[in-house]
Amino acid sequence: MTAMEASLVDWRLRVADLYAAVRADADHDRAHARWRSGRDELFRTHPQSPLPARDPLRETGLPYWPYDTDWRLVVPVVAAEDDERVLDTGDDGSLVMRRVGRATLPEGEGLDVWRMHQYAGGLFVPIKDGTSGRESYGAGRYVLDTAKGSWLGGTDDELVLDLNFAYHPSCRYDDRWRCPLAAPGNTIGSSVTAGERLS
After folding, report:
1. What is the mean pLDDT of the chain?
2. Are the C-beta atoms of residues 159 and 189 closer than 8 Å to each other?
3. Is the model's pTM score more than 0.90?
4. Rounded Cα distance, 76 and 151, in Å
5. Average pLDDT in the 125-134 region?
6. Which of 38, 42, 50, 111 could form a disulfide with 18 if both were Cys (CB 3.0 to 4.6 A apart)?
7. Which of 51, 60, 87 is nearest to 172 (CA)?
């Protein structure tokens, strides 16, 4: 195993530990502050940081909207018509995503829930919203990516989607990364003023 491979394992373990700490804390605002602090430390110091070496975000930390409990949602998930997408992920080859459900948001809009077929079988929920391209990354953010540990809870028929934890994919910071992005079923018209932002 190379040092790079070992550091990737370490990165994923640390991210999973951050989400475990969030799930264990009943004070959502405090848990979010811990998550932000932990992410800033990883992005500043870890060899797997997606930030280029001299990126000013290493010093300032990543910008977010203030935590707002109104954006912490427990939403029903219903079966969705089968769909499959094959995404080019650069050096990693291609990634097959299969839609396994649809989460209904309180305003009536919805988000497709995807299963990463060969990527540890993880669930994946990206979002592109009214802030995309202006206040957040134009290609969208990630709300849930369980292959990377970002699980906040749920059951067979509902998910915790705390949009305060929406974060930019690695490709937002550096072109060397290739990321699966939000499909049309993960695009909503309303503005989600929660989670990571551009500035």
Report:
1. 91
2. no
3. yes
4. 16
5. 97
6. 38
7. 51
Query: Can you tell me which residue has the tokens 């072109």?
Result: 175
DSSP 128: B
Q: Which amino acid is at 130?
A: G
Residue 11 vs residues 18, 128, 153, 189: alpha-carbon distances, Å: 11, 26, 21, 34
C-alpha angle 60-147-185 in degrees, rounded to nearest 5: 85
Judging by beta carbons within 10 Å of its beta carbon (0-12, 13-18, 19+), is residue 155 exposed, middle or buried? exposed
φ, ψ for residue 72, nearest 5 deg: -90, 110
Residue 92 binned pLDDT confidence (cut-offs 50, 70, 90): low
Q: Which two tokens stand for residue 77?
A: 């998930």
Residues 2-14 pLDDT 10s:
988 899 899 999 9
Q: Which helix (H) or strand (E) holds 45?
A: helix 28-45
Beta bridge partners of 85: 97
Mapped onto helix, strand or coil, the DSSP state of residue 142 is: strand
* Side chain identity at residue 66, one-letter code: P
